[in-house]
Every structure is written in structure tokens, then in C-alpha cells.
Amino acid sequence: MTAPSRTGALLDTVRERTPLVHCVTNLVATTFSANALLALGASPAMVEDPEEAAELAAVAGALVVNTGTMSRARAEGMHAAARAAHDAGTPWLLDPVAVGALSLRTHVAGELLAHGPTVVRGNASEILALAGEVGGGRGVDATATVDDAADAADELARRHGTVVAVSGVVDRLTDGRTVHHVGGGHPLMGRVTAMGCALGALTAAFLAAARTTDSAREWDPLTAAVAAHAAVGVCGAAAGRTAGGPGSFVPAWLDALAALDGADDAGGADALVDPA
Amino acid sequence: MTAPSRTGALLDTVRERTPLVHCVTNLVATTFSANALLALGASPAMVEDPEEAAELAAVAGALVVNTGTMSRARAEGMHAAARAAHDAGTPWLLDPVAVGALSLRTHVAGELLAHGPTVVRGNASEILALAGEVGGGRGVDATATVDDAADAADELARRHGTVVAVSGVVDRLTDGRTVHHVGGGHPLMGRVTAMGCALGALTAAFLAAARTTDSAREWDPLTAAVAAHAAVGVCGAAAGRTAGGPGSFVPAWLDALAALDGADDAGGADALVDPA
Amino acid sequence: MTAPSRTGALLDTVRERTPLVHCVTNLVATTFSANALLALGASPAMVEDPEEAAELAAVAGALVVNTGTMSRARAEGMHAAARAAHDAGTPWLLDPVAVGALSLRTHVAGELLAHGPTVVRGNASEILALAGEVGGGRGVDATATVDDAADAADELARRHGTVVAVSGVVDRLTDGRTVHHVGGGHPLMGRVTAMGCALGALTAAFLAAARTTDSAREWDPLTAAVAAHAAVGVCGAAAGRTAGGPGSFVPAWLDALAALDGADDAGGADALVDPA
């Protein structure tokens, strides 16, 4: 299995290259995503004006488009950024927050798929809705399980040539052919807002790192996404051991992201991937 | 007195039902309000596009409309959400941040009253301004005292059939007939931004819990609002005992919200209500 | 040298007067800037609607205009606020985030200079771009050094009659005639988002304090800006000594701002200014 062995190497690459991760993200997630990227060692830029978003996505290391706090104005910036990323070959991640539960963002997310996201990351309800199944989501809650969304995720991945990461107690990532599971984390991650959004942003940082080290023809977004999920999982578990609740979990998790290194990864994050 | 005895029961209901609390709130408060709701045990959703806001307010457990960082675009989402909440019978809370000090939000807040808020929560200057008195507010500062606003609060409550909660060193809540006072808290709460906005959001979670347990004809928003203020007050006092300043107060207060339980309430939060 | 001796006095004035600092700032910085101002002892107000921004800037103690997460809508609020501040004699600070790297904000920042900012604060790349040099910035990163921007800063200060503060490992502040350097701080400040934006907001609080204590003809924005940078530097160093990483740095720094007092300043912040 090639995936886990690369977590440490990709992490080191993030620190060496400090890839610029362009986020068009929601109003709740923006500060926390930026701080997560900085803690990891990447360089965040939150830019959503359509003109500026197109400029930045073309030169960024990776792009995140997150559909939370959707508005018609923000949708223009999302389209401009995703189109520019696609045209420039910038890896980009779609985070379809609450798609299926609310109509405008469900429509916009469907359109955004046409720009060819490198990775789609969401909870099971969101992935079911994006794949055209009945979502049953209630806002940002996941009422469906990761298993419920397995077939829809595989189908979505094959139809759009993308990696689909479904977040849950154990995450499931697929490119439509290969499937990996990632454990770890901590229940307090569900008691902190925008934790999934931060996972999406950090995944984009790993995509950027993988893209710069591998040749353009051969780089593997699935491996990079698995590594990101494993890194987040090991930091979540570490923070959960010291936190006194959801409030103190946030600084502890950011500290853990900054303290994580390639050597620790070999014994920690890698062990979370596809455990026997 | 029926109010204090229900704090623990309502808190338990919040944890069991995890009510969806829809917030149309300001840019400063959005992350903190979401984290406060998650820490308490509710489920936040920050949605402000007019189309999506109307969809969500109709099915949410409760709605918060907060006039901070007002804009003409955001005002549309506020009206759509408040109208849908009114039509669907969703309890909703109006938080008139800096009303009286700035013209657009003063105008919008006056219009929002027509949608029949279940609770209005603000500082004394804001309540005076909303009631049509001269506010004298300076931005979000309260220059008037809770006592100064007592008559205006009672009159506002009777005129609009709402509960009015005036925040101060000791909070005063009234439905125009019955008055309760709630103490507790800590001076550091005044050194953290959006603490009042978070109190509004948590009050909405208690409204949602009360609405689901009581019959639609008999539920009592005043009791629920008092319980929310008491819960926040006891957590504020607890966090103040361990915090080293306003920065460490925030995670300590969120941890205290998550640690609060029905049993502790009986001896803590209840004692803050209408002390002799 | 008059600058350092005034840090403590200005800090005491901030606490006594709690100046209202009006911020038209970016979506990432808004909560953190508000909390930094509250921790220091000032009173933040985040208002960006053009009508409300003009009202508030005319009566505020100071104004900050920050070009991060620029949009055409937000640019209107920036112009309205800066114009009103200029007309009313309210001191105001321009923070040209990522100017030079993105086109809309570079255009808007150039226009904003016409409203006569009291202070311009940015990193070297941003100051070079604002002065008309090739910035070479990559989003919010500073690729140029403080020394690289020294001539551009002096020229910008003289041309617009403003103070220019260039942030770096050692900050350099000039009014085009006198130059001061301020050390201190901690490397973790570069791992927390919107730290520069918070420095801008705190500088505005010191401007407001200086403006109220000195006669209108004689007050010295350079001295006030130096004092603010020294206060931030001493708090950064203090927080860095106790923080376990970028996550725990944030509450530690806010606690340090609140704990800072005029007496400590004499031995701490003052020593950071123009060391031999």
C-alpha cells in the first residue's frame, strides 16, 4: 500500500514549500481554516471577489471551494475560482456544505462539478445529495452514515474523475477504483464548528504538496487526500487527550498540527490508514 | 417560582434533541455563536441567503436574527428568515446590536418587529432605542443601565407580545407582566467580543427545547429565556475562576458550557435567578 | 527620544477613555481584531455598510480600513468611512493587505490614499506596491524585506503626509523625516492569521488615545504608532514564552494585552524601541 508511507514525506513538503492555498470558504470557517493552514505550515489566502479569485486560483498551489453561507454574490467568486483552477491545472477541492438541505447551494454545487474538482470532501448526506441521491441532510448534520454513501461516492468519483472523501467516525476515500479508510480523530471534533471545512483546507495543502513533488502526469490525489486525513486524525486524537472540552480542543489541535512532523507520522498517522 | 426549576430539564432536552438553531448573525459573532451552540449541545446553521434562509427558518428549532454588521443584502436575508419563522411558528429571537446608534439597522430592526419576535435581547441602550426612546448608545456600548430601560422593556414586551431580555451586570427579563432577574457571569464577559450575541444564540436553543417539550399553546418563552441566561451566567462565573484573561476565558467558557449538566444546574444556575 | 517614554501613558489613556475604534476589516480578521481591541481596553465596532460606516467614522476615536477579502461592495464602505474620517478629523489607518498581488484591492487602495490616511501599516511587499514599486508579493506573504522597502516607505510618507509602518522581524516606522525601529514579538506571530491586521487595529486605538490627550495641532501619530508596535511586541514575546504552539499563542497573547500596564511598559515595551 503506497498511501500511508507518504504522509510524512508530504508533510515535509508542505513545510518546505509553504504552498499557497486559496480558500473561497464560508463565513464561519474562514479564520479557523486560515489558522489550521498556518499551523500545518501552508500559506492561506482567503479571496472571493470574482476578479481577484480568478487571478489567485491560477497561481495558487491549490484551491478550496466551500458552499457554506452561500450567497449569489459568493457563488460568482466560486465559479471564477474553480474555472481558473481548472484552466491552470491547479488542484482544487469542493466542500459541499449542507448541499441537499438547501436549494441555492445544491444548484451551485451541481454546476461547480463541471469545473472538474480534484477532490470532493463532505459528510455522507452531502455526498449522497451531490451524487443525485436523496440527501436527507438537516443543515450541516450528517444523518446518513459513511456506509450509506459508499456506492454514491464510488459512482460520483468515476463519473467526474475525482476523489471522493466521505467524513465520519472512520473516513472513506475513493477514486472510484481504490478505497482507503482512515480512523483516528476524537469525538470533540464534532463539537467544534468548521472542523470539516478545516479538513478540506488541509487536504488542499497536501494536494498542493503532492502536485509539486510528482510529475504532472503521475501525481496521485487519492494518496495525498488520505495522508491529509491521517494527519488530521492523529492531531485530533492528540488534542482530545489533553483538551478539557470543545473550547480548549481548538488551540490544542492547532498546536498538534504545528508539532506534527514526518518522523512522528510514520508511527502515528500511517497507523490510522486501513487498519487490519 | 417556576422559572429556575426548569433550567436543568431544558438543558437535558437540548442535549437529547440537539435542536437546529438557525442564525442570521453578524460577521464578528458567527464562529463564536456556532461554537457556543455546539458546546451546549445544539446544532447551529449559519444561513443568510434570502432563499435559503426562508427554507431553513421554516424547519429550524429556533431562529436568531442579529443586526450587527448590517448591510442591505443581509437585511433581505433577515426579513426572509423572520417572516418564514413567523409563518411556521418557529420561535425566533431578535438581537438589535447597536440599534439606536446607526441608522440602517435602526430602521431594519423596527421593521423586523412586525414579524413578531418571541424574544428580544439587547443591552439597555439598544432596548431603549428599539422601544422608541432616545438610545444614547455609542456603537455596541451600553451607556444606559438595566434600570434605565425597565419601563421601555415592559412597554416593548406588552406592545409586541414578546419577551424582552436586557443584559447587564444583573440581567432583567420580562414578558410585560412577570419580571425575573438573573445574576452570575463575570466581568471578563465584557472583554470578549460577541458574548451578548452568543447569549442570544443560546437563548434560542433553550426556546427550541422548550417549544418541543411543551404543548404549542402552553409553552413559556420567558421561562426558557431565564433558564438560558442562568446557564450562561453560571458558565461565565466558572470560566472566570480559571481564566487568566479575556483570551483564555473563551475556551474556558466553551468548556464550561459543554460540562454543564442538569444536576449541576439545580445548585448553580437556579441560584442565580431572582436571588433574595 | 520622545517615542518610548509615551507607551505607558498612551496605554493608560486607552484604558481610561476606551476609544471607539471603527474597523472596516476583512472576514478573517474581524473577530480577532475585535477581541484584541477589547483585551487592550478599547471599544471595537465592525461596521461596513456605506451609510452606517460614514456615520460611525465621523464620531469614532479612530478608523481602520483593511483591504483583505476585498469586494466591490466592501470597497464602497471603505470609501465612505475613509472620506468621513478625513472630513471629521478622525485619525485613520490603512492596512493594504495583499495590495500588489491582486488587482481590485490594488486599485482601491490607491484610491483610498486620496482620503489622507494618518498611518499606513503593511509588510514590505505591500508598501512597495502601494508606493508604486513592483511588489512581488504572493498573496499576503512578504517576500521583500523591511530594508527593501525603506526608501519606498519614506517616499510614501512624504508624498501623502502620513506615517508608514513596515512590519517585519524588526518593524520600521517613519513619517518621512524621523525613523524608529521596534523589535520584540515572537516567531509564532507569523503562524497566526490576521496578526498584522490586529496590530493595525491596536495602532488605531493608540492613535485615538494620542488624539484625545494632545492638542489637535500638536499630536504626533508617529509616536503613537511606535508605542502600539512596542506594546504588541512585548505582548508577543510574553505569549511566546508560555504558548505551546500557534493555537495556544492566541489566548496567551490576548491575556498579555489585557495584563499589560503602564508601569510594565517602562521596562518592557520601551526597551524594544530603537535599541542601541
TrEMBL record, chains A, B, C:
Task: State whether keyword Cell inner membrane applies.
Answer: no
Under Pfam families, the record lists: HK
> What cofactor does this chain's UniProt record say it requires?
Mg(2+)
Protein residues bound to ATP = 121, 167
**Pathway noted in the entry:** Cofactor biosynthesis; thiamine diphosphate biosynthesis; 4-methyl-5-(2-phosphoethyl)-thiazole from 5-(2-hydroxyethyl)-4-methylthiazole: step 1/1
Q: Where does substrate bind?
A: 46, 194
GO biological process terms, alphabetically, are: thiamine biosynthetic process; thiamine diphosphate biosynthetic process
**UniProt keyword annotations, A-Z:** ATP-binding, Kinase, Magnesium, Metal-binding, Nucleotide-binding, Thiamine biosynthesis, Transferase
User: According to the lineage, what is the superkingdom?
Assistant: Bacteria
InterPro entries registered for this protein in UniProt: Hyethyz_kinase (IPR000417), Ribokinase-like (IPR029056)
What molecular functions are annotated in GO for this chain?
ATP binding; hydroxyethylthiazole kinase activity; magnesium ion binding
Q: Which reaction does it catalyse?
A: 5-(2-hydroxyethyl)-4-methylthiazole + ATP = 4-methyl-5-(2-phosphooxyethyl)-thiazole + ADP + H(+)
- Entry EC no(s): 2.7.1.50
User: What the protein does?
Assistant: Catalyzes the phosphorylation of the hydroxyl group of 4-methyl-5-beta-hydroxyethylthiazole (THZ).
**Similarity remark:** Belongs to the Thz kinase family.
This chain belongs to the protein called: Hydroxyethylthiazole kinase
